[in-house]
Amino acid sequence: SVSNGGDTESGKELVELKVIWNKNKYDVKFCLDSTGAELKQKIHSLTGLPPAMQKVMFKGLLPEEKTLREIKVTNGAKIMVVGSTINDVLAVNTPKEAAQQEVKAEENKKEPLCRQKQHRKVLDKGKPDDVMPSVKGVQERLPTVPLSGMYNKSGGKVRLTFKLEQDQLWIGTKERTEKLPMGSIKNVVSEPIEGHEDYHMMAFQLGPTEASYYWVYWVPTQYVDAIKDTVLGKWQYF
């Protein structure tokens, strides 16, 4: 742990934060009336990670324009930081991009997922009555409540709870709740549902092959990008 010893800012109300990045933990005292953007600058000075490359999370993605007081940051709060330095990105990005383009080209040859038989039997049940409302053309941060009212591949009800402090995704059904470390999820894929493009079907890859995909249907479109960013813990370059 690294302390910045910054409690000399007289007259300003400070809050103690635990900034976590790449298994490094930094104890930071920071002004409650500073914005998310200013916190990113502070994180830059600690980690060398440029603000533009940072994904900072506190109960979802940290808004840059709001102060820590406005988003109710309290003493001892954990701030999760995701991102790679420029050197890390340059080292891995070129081969990774090529591989991703190959995968995308392969996917484009296949018929849409929602027409495949295994998915049709769930989708043909229609939209769940208690599904969360969707907002088309908008990207939103993850809600503070679990995402609920969705189906899994057996047609049972499923909810997703994002435990950012524990770096876990909880997949809950009537029978049980699976608590998965975010780092154990290899990939997340999604596709809009034909005829209901404001909802997606989404899969979390829990093992080495496609057979390990855990499918979730009727995910509101506005949360799709936030789910991918949060679970994969990395920048989407495509």
Short description:
By secondary structure, this protein is an alpha+beta fold.
Give a verbal description of the structure.
It is a single chain. The chain is of the alpha+beta class and 238 residues long. Strands 9-8-7-6-12-11-10 form a 7-stranded antiparallel beta sheet, covered by helices on one side. The longest helix is centred in the middle third of the chain and has 24 residues, at 86-109. Strand 6 (147-152) and strand 7 (157-163) form a beta hairpin. It has helices at 36-47, 86-109, 117-123, 224-232, and strands at residues 2-3, 14-21, 24-31, 55-57, 77-82, 147-152, 157-163, 168-172, 177-181, 187-193, 196-205, 213-220. It folds into 2 domains: 14-89, Roll (Ubiquitin-like (UB roll)), CATH 3.10.20.90; 113-232, Pleckstrin-homology domain (PH domain)/Phosphotyrosine-binding domain (PTB) (PH-domain like, Roll), CATH 2.30.29.30. The protein starts with a strand and ends in a 6-residue tail after the last helix.
